[in-house]
C-alpha cells in the first residue's frame, strides 16, 4: 500500500504539484473608471451623475516559497516505517549476508546526521550509539537465537524497538523541531538507497518485454529476436535522448518522457520480472516473499523520495534522480540486450520456454552483466562531467536550508540557499527563496542583485515575474518590460509573462500591444478574458465579442463595469450576500453591482454595507464602502438618505469633500433644487474641484451666484452652455431654455398657480411637456381640477406626448390617493409602490400621502419636520406649521412662517395661511 501511494504521489507531484512550493498566483488590483449612475434631462441638457466603478486586473506574482512541515513529518514517518520493515527482513538473511547488511545499516545510520540532535553536547556520538543499540541488538538477537520466528513475530519486536528508540532520541534532542530535523536530513541517505533500487530495475523494461515475447512465441517459432532488438533499440534511444535533453546537449524535434514516469513504468515491469529472477539465481534469502518485500520497500522509498524532491522543488535532488536513473537504464538496457543475444541468439526463435532459464547462463553470466553495466555507469558519469557530485552537494544544502526555513531561522536558510545555488545553478527555488528572504529583511537591492544573477545564469518564470514586479514598484516600468520581453525569448508564449507584459504595456499607454499580448495567451483563459475586458474599457477600445464567455467572479465584475459605462442593465446579477473575503474583489463587486441594479431589499443591503463600514480597516477601505453606501441609497431612490450620507462623507473624508459636494449638487439639481445645488457647487469650487462642466455654471448662474459662475469660467476655462448668450450690455439674452431655467430655479418654493401660469408662457413643446411632468410629480398635491386637465392635454397630446390618457389617470391616482395596484410600468418606475413614501422629500405628493395615512399626530410632525429640511414647497411647510401647533410646538411653526416670508410674497403667504391653517 505504501508503494502504491508512493507511485500515485510521484505522479501527482510530476503533473500537478511540480512547483507547489514555489507559488505563482494571480494577484488582483483595481483601477477606477467613471460611469454614469443616473441620467436626467433639464431642457436640452442631458446630465449624468457620475460615480466610480472598478476594473479588476489580475497580475501574476511570485509569492514566498511554501514548505509544508506536516508533509515533511509524514514523509519521515513513512520512511521510518519502511526502514522498520526493511530491518525485519534483514533478520531473515543468510549468515554472511546478514553480517554484511548489518554493517550497511550502521553505515546508513552514520549518514543520517543523527548526531545533529545534540544530546549531551554539540554533535556528540550518543544519538548514534543509542540508535544502534536500539536497532542492532534486537536484530542480532532474533537472527541468531530466534531463527524459527516468522515475519509477524519479528516485526512485532524490531519495529517497536526501532520506533521507541527514535522517540527517546527525539525526547532528549536539543534542536528545534527535532522531528522535522530528522525528516529532512534522512532524505539524502534514503536517496542513496533509491539509487541502488534504480540500478536494480535498470533493464526491467527490456527484460519484461523479452519475457512477454518469449511466452507469446511458445510453440509458434516466430523470429522474435527482431522484435526484441527493435524494442530494445527504441527504448535505449528513448532514455539516451532523454539524458541528452536534460543535459541540454541537443534540442530534439520531438518530446521525451519525464524520467520519473519512466521510473514508474520500469518499477512496475520489474516487479513482474522479479519472480523469474528470484527462482533462477542464487539469492541471499530463503523465501520469495522476502525478495518481493525488499523490492516493494525499494520502490516505495524511491517513489516517495523522488516525489518529495519534485513536490518541494529541490531541483538538484530531482536532477540527481534523473541522471542516476537514466545512467542505470542506458547501461543495463544495453548490457542486458548484449547478454540476451550472447546467450540465447541461437535458440531465441525456437519457441521454447526460455523465460525459465533467462537468468541462468554461465558463459556470460547475469552477475558479469551487472559488473559491465556498473563500468558503463561510471563512463556515463565521466561523460556528464561528474555532475551528480555537485547535484548531491547542492541537494544536501537545500535540505538543511529547508529545515531552517521551516523553523523560521531565515538567516541560516538564506546562507545555505545561496551556497546551494553557487554549487548548482539549476536551482530555481533556492534563488527565489533568497530573494524573498532579502525582501522580508527590507534589503531590496540585495534581492534585486540575486534576481539579476538568476536571470543571467538560469532564468525562470517566477524570478522574472519577481524582478519585473520589483522594478515596476520602483517606477522603472521600461526595465520591468525589458525583463518580461527577454523572458519571453526563453519561455515563448508563457501565459504569466504575457499577462504581466500586457498590463505594463497598458501602463505606458500602448493598448494595442497590450491586447495583442493577451491574444497570444493560450491558457489561463479566464484571466485572459477578464484582463482583456478591463483593458478594453480602460482604453476605450471595443470589447471583443467573445469576451462574454467568462463565468468567474472577477470577469463578471468587469462585465458589470462595461454595462455601467454603456448605461445598460447587465443580463446577470452577482450575489451581494455571500461576499468573498478579499477586499478588492468584495468592494468592487458591491460597487459595480449596485451601480448597475440593486435586486435585494434596501434594508438588507444597508445592513451588509454598514457591517463592512464598522470593521477595523484602513481609511481608504472605509471611504470605499461609504461611497458604495451612497450609491446603494441612490439606487434605492432613498434621496434623503443619499444626501445625508454625502454630507457625512464631506466631514469624514475632507480630502474628497469636493467630489462629494459636486455629486450632492447634481442629485439636488435632478430634484430641481437649484438653490441647494448651487451651494454645494460653490463649496466644491472653494475646496479646489477642477472638473466643472457647463451645466454646473448654469446652475450657479440661475441660483443667483453669478460672480462664482463667472469666476469658474475664467479660472477653469469652462464655457457656459451654448444656449446662454449675453448682449453687448452683459444682459442674458432671453430664449425658451433661459425662460425654462428661470422657472426651475424657484420651482419648489413657488405656489402651483404661479408655475401653471409660467407653463402657459412656454412655447417650446418639448420644454412645456417636460415642465408639465415635473409639475405632476412634485406639485400634484396642490393642483386643482382645471390644472390636471391642462397638464393632461400637454402630456397626452401633441408631438411630444409620451403618456396615454390611461397612464396619466393612473399616475394622478397614484400621486393623490396612493393607488398600489399600478399596471403601467412607466408609472410604477416613478411611484415605486413597494418603497417608502417618505424616501424622497422632493416627491411632495407622496410625502403628503404619508402624512394623511399616519394617525399619530407626533409622527406626522416628525415626517414633515424631516421633509422641510430639504423641500421648500409652501403647502408642505404649511402642513408642518399646522402639525407643530397641534403638538404644542407652535414656536417652531412660527419660525417656519418667518422663513417662508423670504421666498413668498405677503399676499401668497397670507392666502396659504388662510387656506391651510
User: Which parts are unreliable, with pLDDT below 50 for 5 consecutive residues or more?
Assistant: none
Shape: elongated
Look at the helices and sheets and give the structural class.
mainly alpha
Radius of gyration: 42 Å
Number of helices: 42
Give the proportion of residues in helices.
55-70%
- Mean pLDDT comes to 89
- The first-to-last residue Cα distance is 94 Å
Query: Count the strands?
Result: 2
Blueprint (SSEs and pairs):
Elements: H1 2-15, E1 24-42, E2 45-62, H2 69-90, H3 95-110, H4 126-145, H5 151-172, H6 178-185, H7 187-200, H8 204-216, H9 224-247, H10 259-280, H11 288-311, H12 315-344, H13 366-383, H14 387-406, H15 410-423, H16 428-440, H17 444-457, H18 461-473, H19 477-490, H20 495-507, H21 511-519, H22 525-538, H23 553-566, H24 583-596, H25 602-613, H26 619-635, H27 639-652, H28 657-670, H29 674-686, H30 694-702, H31 706-716, H32 736-744, H33 752-761, H34 765-779, H35 785-796, H36 805-817, H37 825-831, H38 844-853, H39 857-867, H40 874-886, H41 890-900, H42 906-916
Antiparallel strand pairs: 1-2
Helix pairs in contact: 1-11, 2-5, 2-6, 2-11, 3-4, 4-5, 6-14, 7-11, 7-12, 8-9, 8-10, 9-12, 10-11, 12-13, 12-14, 14-15, 15-16, 16-17, 17-18, 18-19, 18-20, 19-20, 20-21, 21-22, 22-23, 23-24, 24-26, 25-26, 26-27, 27-28, 28-29, 29-30, 30-31, 33-34, 34-35, 38-39, 39-40, 40-41, 40-42
Amino acid at each position: 500500500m505504501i508503494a502504491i501511494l508512493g507511485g500515485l504521489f510521484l505522479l501527482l507531484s510530476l503533473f500537478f504539484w511540480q512547483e507547489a512550493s514555489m507559488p505563482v498566483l494571480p494577484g488582483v488590483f483595481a483601477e477606477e473608471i467613471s460611469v454614469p449612475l443616473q441620467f436626467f434631462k433639464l431642457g436640452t441638457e442631458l446630465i449624468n451623475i457620475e460615480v466610480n466603478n472598478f476594473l479588476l486586473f489580475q497580475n501574476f506574482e511570485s509569492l514566498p516559497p511554501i514548505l509544508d512541515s506536516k508533509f515533511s513529518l509524514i514523509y519521515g514517518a513513512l520512511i521510518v516505517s519502511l526502514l522498520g520493515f526493511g530491518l525485519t527482513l534483514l533478520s531473515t538473511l543468510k549468515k554472511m549476508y546478514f553480517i554484511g547488511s548489518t554493517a550497511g545499516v550502521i553505515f546508513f545510520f552514520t549518514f543520517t546526521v543523527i548526531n545533529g540532535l545534540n544530546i549531551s553536547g554539540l554533535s556528540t556520538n550518543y544519538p548514534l550509539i543509542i540508535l544502534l543499540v536500539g536497532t542492532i541488538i534486537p536484530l542480532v538477537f532474533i537472527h541468531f537465537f530466534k531463527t524459527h520466528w516468522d515475519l509477524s513475530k519479528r516485526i512485532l519486536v524490531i519495529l517497536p524497538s526501532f520506533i521507541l528508540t527514535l522517540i527517546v532520541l527525539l525526547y532528549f534532542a536539543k534542536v528545534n523541531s527535532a522531528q522535522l530535523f530528522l525528516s529532512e536530513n534522512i532524505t539524502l541517505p534514503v536517496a542513496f538507497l533509491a539509487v541502488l533500487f534504480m540500478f536494480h530495475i535498470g533493464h526491467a523494461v527490456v527484460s519484461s518485454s523479452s519475457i512477454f515475447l518469449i511466452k507469446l512465441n511458445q510453440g509458434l517459432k516466430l523470429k522474435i529476436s527482431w522484435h526484441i532488438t527493435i524494442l530494445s533499440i527504441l527504448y535505449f534511444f528513448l532514455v539516451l535522448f532523454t539524458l541528452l535533453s536534460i543535459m541540454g546537449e541537443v534540442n530534439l524535434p520531438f518530446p521525451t518522457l519525464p524520467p520519473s514516469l519512466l521510473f514508474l513504468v520500469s518499477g512496475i515491469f520489474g516487479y513482474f520480472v522479479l519472480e523469474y529472477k528470484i527462482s533462477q539465481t542464487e539469492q541471499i534469502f530463503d523465501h520469495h516473499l522476502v525478495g518481493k518485500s525488499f523490492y516493494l520497500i525499494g520502490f516505495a522509498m524511491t517513489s516517495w523520495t523522488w516525489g518529495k524532491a519534485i513536490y518541494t522543488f529541490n531541483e538538484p535532488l530531482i536532477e540527481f534522480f534523473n541522471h542516476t536513473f537514466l545512467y542505470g537504464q542506458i547501461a543495463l538496457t544495453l548490457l542486458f540486450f548484449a547478454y540476451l543475444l550472447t546467450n540465447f541468439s541461437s535458440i531465441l526463435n525456437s519457441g521454447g520456454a526460455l523465460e525459465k532459464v533467462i537468468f541462468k547462463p554461465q558463459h556470460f553470466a547475469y552477475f558479469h552483466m551487472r559488473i559491465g553495466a556498473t563500468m558503463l555507469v561510471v563512463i556515463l558519469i565521466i561523460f556528464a562531467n561528474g555532475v551528480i557530485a555537485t547535484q548531491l552537494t547542492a541537494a544536501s544544502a537545500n535540505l538543511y536550508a529547508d529545515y531552517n526555513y521551516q523553523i523560521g531561522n531565515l538567516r541560516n536558510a538564506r546562507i545555505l540557499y545561496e551556497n546551494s545555488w553557487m554549487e548548482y545553478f539549476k536551482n530555481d527555488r533556492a534563488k527565489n527563496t533568497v530573494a524573498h528572504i532579502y525582501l522580508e529583511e527590507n534589503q531590496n537591492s540585495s534581492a534585486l542583485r540575486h534576481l539579476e544573477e538568476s536571470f543571467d545564469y538560469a532564468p525562470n518564470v517566477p524570478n522574472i515575474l519577481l524582478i519585473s514586479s520589483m522594478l515596476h514598484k520602483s517606477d522603472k516600468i521600461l526595465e520591468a518590460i525589458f525583463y518580461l520581453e527577454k523572458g519571453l525569448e526563453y519561455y515563448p508564449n508563457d501565459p504569466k509573462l504575457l499577462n504581466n507584459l500586457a498590463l505594463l504595456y497598458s501602463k505606458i499607454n500602448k493598448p494595442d500591444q497590450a491586447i495583442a499580448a493577451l491574444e497570444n495567451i493560450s491558457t489561463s483563459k479566464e484571466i485572459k478574458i477578464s484582463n482583456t475586458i478591463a483593458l478594453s474599457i480602460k482604453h476605450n477600445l471595443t470589447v471583443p465579442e467573445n469576451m462574454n464567455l467568462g463565468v468567474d467572479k472577477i470577469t463578471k465584475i468587469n462585465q458589470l463595469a462595461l454595462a455601467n459605462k454603456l448605461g445598460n442593465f447587465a443580463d446577470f446579477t452577482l450575489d451581494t450576500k455571500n461576499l468573498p473575503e478579499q477586499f478588492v474583489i468584495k468592494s468592487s463587486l458591491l460597487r459595480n453591482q449596485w451601480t448597475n441594479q440593486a435586486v435585494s431589499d434596501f434594508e438588507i443591503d444597508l445592513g451588509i454595507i454598514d457591517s463592512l463600514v464598522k470593521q477595523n480597516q484602513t481609511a481608504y477601505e472605509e471611504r470605499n464602502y461609504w461611497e458604495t453606501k451612497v450609491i446603494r441609497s441612490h439606487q434605492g431612490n432613498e434621496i434623503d438618505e443619499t444626501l445625508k450620507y454625502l454630507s457625512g462623507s464631506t466631514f469624514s473624508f475632507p480630502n474628497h469633500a469636493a467630489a462629494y459636494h459636486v455629486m450632492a449638487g447634481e442629485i439636488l439639481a435632478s430634484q430641481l433644487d437649484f438653490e441647494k445645488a448651487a451651494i454645494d457647487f460653490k463649496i466644491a469650487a472653494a475646496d479646489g474641484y477642477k472638473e466643472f462642466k457647463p451645466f454646473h455654471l448654469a446652475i450657479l448662474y440661475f441660483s443667483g451666484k453669478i460672480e462664482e459662475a463667472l469666476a469658474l469660467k475664467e479660472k477653469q476655462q469652462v464655457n457656459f452652455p451654448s444656449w446662454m448668450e449675453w448682449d453687448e450690455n452683459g444682459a442674458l439674452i432671453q430664449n425658451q431654455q433661459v425662460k425654462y431655467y428661470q422657472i426651475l430655479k424657484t420651482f419648489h418654493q413657488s405656489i402651483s398657480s404661479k408655475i401653471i401660469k409660467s407653463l402657459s408662457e412656454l412655447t417650446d413643446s418639448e420644454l412645456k411637456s417636460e415642465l408639465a411632468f415635473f409639475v405632476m410629480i412634485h406639485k400634484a398635491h396642490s393642483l386643482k381640477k382645471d390644472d390636471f386637465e391642462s397638464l393632461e392635454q400637454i402630456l397626452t397630446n401633441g408631438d411630444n406626448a409620451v403618456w396615454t390618457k390611461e397612464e396619466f389617470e393612473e399616475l394622478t391616482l397614484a400621486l393623490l390617493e396612493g393607488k398600489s395596484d399600478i399596471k403601467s410600468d412607466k408609472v410604477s418606475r416613478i411611484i415605486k409602490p413597494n418603497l417608502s413614501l417618505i424616501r424622497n422629500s422632493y416627491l411632495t405628493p407622496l410625502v403628503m400621502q404619508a402624512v394623511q395615512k399616519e394617525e399619530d399626530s407626533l409622527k406626522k410632525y416628525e415626517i414633515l419636520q424631516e421633509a422641510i429640511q430639504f423641500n421648500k414647497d409652501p403647502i408642505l411647510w404649511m402642513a408642518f406649521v399646522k402639525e407643530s401647533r397641534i403638538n404644542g410646538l407652535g414656536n417652531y411653526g412660527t419660525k417656519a412662517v418667518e422663513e417662508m416670508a423670504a421666498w413668498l410674497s405677503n399676499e401668497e403667504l397670507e392666502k396659504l395661511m388662510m387656506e391651510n391653517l
